[in-house]
Specification:
Elements: H1 11-23, E1 30-33, H2 42-45, E2 53-58, H3 61-71, H4 83-90, H5 97-105, H6 124-137, E3 142-145, E4 157-161, E5 170-172, E6 178-180, H7 183-193, E7 198-204, E8 215-218, E9 222-226, E10 229-233, E11 235-240
Parallel strand pairs: 1-2, 1-4, 2-3, 4-7
Antiparallel strand pairs: 5-6, 7-11, 8-11, 9-10
Helix pairs in contact: 3-5, 3-6
């Protein structure tokens, strides 16, 4: 599924690192993604970890309704995906499963209702089949809409966070309004949650986290091309928790 900032390509490698953490730390009973989005990591985590409780959340109500509905047997309607219907859906003020699907897969760069791209029509059936297949894997995931603080009560979880990057703090809510993400409050929340959980945050490399000493795993650079410009951006996983087994090597993971 097209999704801006999704982990379509890197999700498998990240999941292998997370599974290594699970294997080397006792007492983990759940896995949580407060910024689940397109579930690029979550769809890999459910495989082989059936003993865990899984939860996923997102501030975009429509993307959460999409996954919850797919798990319940719903399928996206791709019979009338025109520019006119796209524009009407964008401004209707509703939160629906169909909106969560169309608003990403038919938009430029997978940015939620950024702009309609006719050329994507030939891929929409494939996108539909992909999300249906992925939802079958995630049949036991409990999805809920809201920001990351809705999970403040959980304990003994691995919490994988993929928030808006600090260098680009803006994102779009379900009403297609630009929202500024409060990074300072987010990191305070993470530091509180690390007392009873293991926190893994996907962020740009080189950021500083005050009061924490995370294990840092640098991910392979990815080429970001836009028109004539190509930039290599490097991301890292910042891993920390008061009960984290730090002697285990998490940095030697390779995806076949």
């Amino acid at each position: 599924m097209r999704y801006h900032g999704g982990k379509t390509k890197g999700g498998k490698r990240i999941s292998i690192i997370l599974k290594r953490i699970i294997d080397n730390n006792d007492g983990i009973s759940g896995y949580c993604e407060p910024f689940c989005g397109a579930c690029g990591v979550l769809k890999h985590m459910v495989v082989g970890n059936e003993h865990l409780d899984f939860s996923g959340g997102d501030s975009n109500k429509s993307i959460v309704k999409m996954w919850s509905s797919l798990v319940g047997g719903w399928e996206p309607d791709i019979s009338n995906v025109t520019k006119e219907s796209y524009i009407l859906m964008r401004g209707d003020g509703n939160s629906t499963a169909q909106k969560g699907f169309i608003g990403h897969v038919m938009s430029f760069g997978g940015v939620y209702f950024k702009s309609y791209v006719d050329e994507l029509l030939h891929t929409i059936e494939s996108s539909k089949n992909n999300v249906i297949t992925e939802s079958i894997l995630m049949k036991d995931v409990v999805f809920s809409s809201g920001d990351y603080t809705q999970f403040s009560h959980i304990k003994n979880n691995i919490i994988f966070c993929d928030p808006p990057y600090q260098k680009n703090s803006n994102y779009y809510d379900d009403d297609n309004k630009r929202v500024l993400f409060d990074h300072e409050s987010f990191w305070v929340w993470c530091k509180n949650m690390k007392k009873d959980n293991i926190i893994v945050v996907n962020e740009m490399s080189g950021i500083k986290i005050d009061g924490c000493n995370p294990i840092i795993i640098e991910l392979p650079a990815r080429n970001i091309s836009y028109r004539k410009n190509t930039n290599k951006e490097t991301e890292s996983l910042y891993i920390y928790g008061d009960k984290l087994h730090r002697d285990c090597v998490y940095t030697d993971v390779r995806v076949p």
